[in-house]
Amino acid sequence: MRTGKGRMGTTTKKTIAIFRSNRRVYLSVALGVCVLFATAASASQPRPIGMVLDEADAMRSDANRSRFAELLEELNHRVAEASEEQSEQISYLNAYRTALAGSYKQAIAEAVDLFQRSKNADMRFRAAALALNGMAVQADYTGGLRQLESILPLVDQVKNIEVRRQGLGAGATLYNQVGQYELAIPLLEKIRQGGGLSPRTSCFTNYAELEALQGLGRFPEDGTADRYASKCEGNGEKLVAVFIRSFIARSLKAQGKIDEASRLLERLSREAHDIGYPAQISQVDSLLAEVRLLRHDLEGALRASASAVAAGEKTPTSAVSLVSAYKTQYQVAETRGDTIRALAAYKLYMQADKQNIDQVKAKELAYQIVRHETQQKAQQISLLSKQNEVLRLQQQVDKQSAQNSRLMVLLMLLVCGFVGYWAYKVKRVQISLKRWAETDALTQVSNRHSFSQTSRNALTDAARDGEEVAMVMFDLDHFKAINDRFGHGTGDWVLKEVAEVCRSFCRRVDQIGRLGGEEFAFLLRGYDARSAVRLSDDCRARLASIDTAPSGHSFVVTGSFGVTTTALSGYDLTRLLSHADNALYRAKREGRNRVYLYEPAAVSVESQFGEVMADNVVPLKAEPAAWA
C-alpha cells in the first residue's frame, strides 16, 4: 500500500511539473478555443432587424444598388420577426426597388397600397412621394399632381425631417416637369430650412434648383452649377452630376463657347452611356449632336443624334431631345445636299416637334385640371362647412322652438338666406368653371374645343340660311425666336396683345379662338372671299403696328394668314380648317407676313412639312418679316 501510494504521488508531481513548464502554451490554446467558439456563436446570431433596415434605407441609390438588393433580400426572409412599423418599412423598400428596376406601374401600385393602409404619417408621406415620382416618370402628370395635392397637407404632420424633405423634393421635381418652375422654388426653399441636409438630399435639391432656374432663364454662370455637380459626384450620385453638367454644357453653347461645350459633352456622353439611363443618354447626345454640327463634324453629329434617338424612344420624357436629334439629322442631310434624306428627317423632326408641343399642352392641361379640381374641392368643403353651420343653427332653433316661436321663424329665415347665398355661390363657381373650360387662360379668347363647338353650330345655321362664311387662320411668325430671345414672359405679352387686336376685328356673330401655341382662327359670318382677305390684311397690318415698348423690348410682330370660305370649301368645319391651314402654310413657305387665299382647283402635293398644301394658293399681300 505504501509502495502504491508513493507511485501515485510521484506521477501527480510529474504532471504538475509538466503543466507548469508548458502553461503558456496551454493557456494560448485555451484562449484560441474560446475565441473560436465566441466567433461561431456571434456568426450564428444575425444583426437586429432594425440595424439591417437602417442600412438598407441608407443604401437605396444607384451607387449602392447591389448592396441594397442584398440587404432587402435578408429583410424579406426575416419579415416574420418585424414589427408592424418595420414591416411597412420593408414594403416601402420593396416598392422602391421595383421603381429602381424600371417597373414603375407596379411600384406605383405598391406605394399607393401602402399609403392607403398605413396609419403612420411619415410612412404615408414616403409612400405617396414614391408614387408621385413613379407617375412623373410615366408622364402621368395629372395623377402625379393629384398625388402631390394629397401629400402637401401632410407636411406638417411628418416628424422625420429627411422624409419631409424627400416628399417636398418629389413635388418640386414634378412641378419642374410640368413647367411650373415658380411653384418648385418655394418647395426647395422649405427643404433647405433648418440646414443639416444629407449629402444625397443636398445633391437632388441642388439639381432641382438648377433645373428650375434654367427653365426660368436664370441659370447661374458663377461656377455654382459646377460646384453642385462635384459635390454630387463625390457622394456617389454620378447620374445627377451628369445631368447638372449637361445644364452647364447647354449654357456654354448658348454663350457661344462651342469648343468648351464640346469637350464637356464628349466626356458626359461616355459617362451617360456607362450609367445606362436612357433619358440622360438622349439628353446629352442630342446636345452633343448640336455642338458637333456647329463644329462641322457631320459624321459625329449623325452618330450622336442616332444615339439620342435610340435612347429617347425608350422613355416618354425625352420629347425635347428627340426634336433636337431629328433636327440635327435634317440639317446634316441638307448640308450634304441629300434631298431625300433631308425630307425624311424633316418629316420626323416635325412629327417629334408636334409630339413635344402636344406633351407641353398635356402638362399644362394636367396642371389646369388639378388646379380646378382643388379649387372645386375647396369650394365644396366651404359649402359643407356652411351647411353644417346651418344644421347647427337649425338644431338650436328646434331646441328653443317651444320657448320662442318668433325666434324660430327668424332663425329659419336666416337659414334660408344662408342656403340661398351658398346656392348662388355654387352656381357662380359652376359658371366660372364652365368659362375656364371654354376660354384660353392666357388670351381670354375661346380655346380650340370651344371654338370648334361654336363654329360648328354657326356653320349649321349659315348652311340652313344659305349664308356664306369665311374661315381665317393665322400663325405668328418666328414666335419661338421671341420666346428664346426675350423670354416666355414677353411671349405671353405678345399673345395677349394679338388677342386684343383680333377681338377688335370681330363682331358678336363671329367666332375667334386660339387653336394652340401662337395659332389663331376667325369664323366670319356673311363674309365672301374678298371681304375676308381684306379683313385679314387689315389684321396683319395691325399686328405689325403693335407697340412692343411696354414689354421692355423692341421688335416687330408679324403673322402669316390663310383664308377660305364656304363657297370654296363647303360648310364642314374640318374641311374649312384644313384648307385655311394649307393656305397658311403656303404663306409661311413664301416668306411669311402675308395673306393667301385657298383655291380648290389646285393640285395638292405632300410637302416637306407632312401637310397637304395647294400649289395655286394666291398671295394677296407681302410685308418684310420681322425675324429673318
From TrEMBL:
InterPro entries noted in UniProt: DGC-Regulatory_Protein (IPR052163), GGDEF_dom (IPR000160), Nucleotide_cyclase (IPR029787), Rev_trsase/Diguanyl_cyclase (IPR043128), TPR-like_helical_dom_sf (IPR011990)
Pfam families noted in UniProt: GGDEF
Cofactor: Mg(2+)
Keyword Transmembrane helix included in the entry's annotation: yes
Top-level division of the source organism's lineage: Bacteria
Signal peptide range in chain numbering: 1-40
Residue ranges of the TM segments: 407-424
The keyword Membrane is assigned to this record: yes
Annotated GGDEF domain residues: 467-600
One function term, GO molecular function aspect: catalytic activity
Protein name stated in the entry: GGDEF domain-containing protein
Organism listed in the record: Pseudoxanthomonas composti
Phylogenetic classification of the source organism: Bacteria, Pseudomonadati, Pseudomonadota, Gammaproteobacteria, Lysobacterales
